[in-house]
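Late entry, evening session. Most of the bench is empty. Finally got around to the prediction I had been postponing all week. Sequence below, unchanged from the version circulated by S.P.
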Amino acid sequence: MDEAGGEPMRSLWLLSLVLLAAGCSALPSEGPSAIGITSEQISTEQASVPSGVENYTVIDVSPSNIERLKNYRPLSFMNQFQGVGGGGSSALLGVGDSLQIKIWEASREGLFSGASGDGTLIPATVDETGFIFVPYAGRIQAAGQSVEGLRQTIESKLVGKAIEPQVLVVVSSKLSSTAVVVGDVAKPGVYPLQVRNTRLLELVAQAGGARAATYETVVTLKRGARSGTTRLEHLIDFPENNVLVSPGDNVLLSHRPRTFSAFGAVKANQLVPFRTKTVSMAEALATVGGLNDYRADAGGIFLFRYEEADLVRQLRPDLAQKMAGQTEVPVVYRVSLQDPRGFFLTRFFEMRDKDILYVANHPTAEFGKFLQIIAPLTNNALSVAAIVNK
């Protein structure tokens, strides 16, 4: 090749090297590379850890981390209502309560004596002013009184009118203290609360339970300005979340099937529903067809999710002081399938609702894309060089 023909070729290869050095990062891609994810995680030198998505921490999946994840008790739902209401219905009567009042007398000639001597049963409802009416005793203040206090009041009002009256007061329905249950339950409605403490799971049971599977049902409890949501199964698995119900509480049950998303160098990028109560990372990868043989970086398997700050403090004690005041932290879990032990780890790492599973492209796959892009250019250049050399 002469000097004139060699000059274009040298320029071409120089341009190719420049593009190779600077252009690979700008190639079309389904997501960040493994090194791009790990290089932008939260560093211990940062001044703070904001709750937004601009900062996250990368945690390597290990046997100890999996054990912490399994033993962690998510109690944010309980904490939302701790010390705020709860305890069931008040022991005092209120507007709307239905009563059964039975009166006996010592003689069959009395005002309330029946032919059988069984006494007289008087139904009564506490009206909007808080009063009830009892014949010959008149209007009596019931709201704010205990059952025993009302009984004694009725007896005292009948002294001198009835013959040695004896009174029994029974609450048949306590509508002054109720909670509402709606949504995907068998019997939605308004439920009176007992004087004894009533817990959330008991109230759901009174409403007939959830129509869907417990692990596909979420419970939302609204109490005044406070609101909290948790999976129905968490009321059973973590009894601390089975909080006491307060009068006026609103409970909503919703059927919310769990899903996870798969992106990157897997054989099928898709939204995947949970088919069983528990799904491991290994099962999730198998569901989407496993890793793409031609593109996947087996050392770059990542799972994105939000974790409670208390759990992240256990997994990354070095960040504990940086997360003061945070409730949720974006976390990226990393596992490598280049190490055979990684397969065992994925077997015990459980997926959660709305997890994002991502497999990074291998660096050589990006280089292969680059070669495909510049192939027409090099072919044309070689053709030109051949013509020049003739």
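Two things to note before I forget:
The radius of gyration is 36 Å.
The first strand starts at residue 57 and ends at 60.
Will write this up properly tomorrow.
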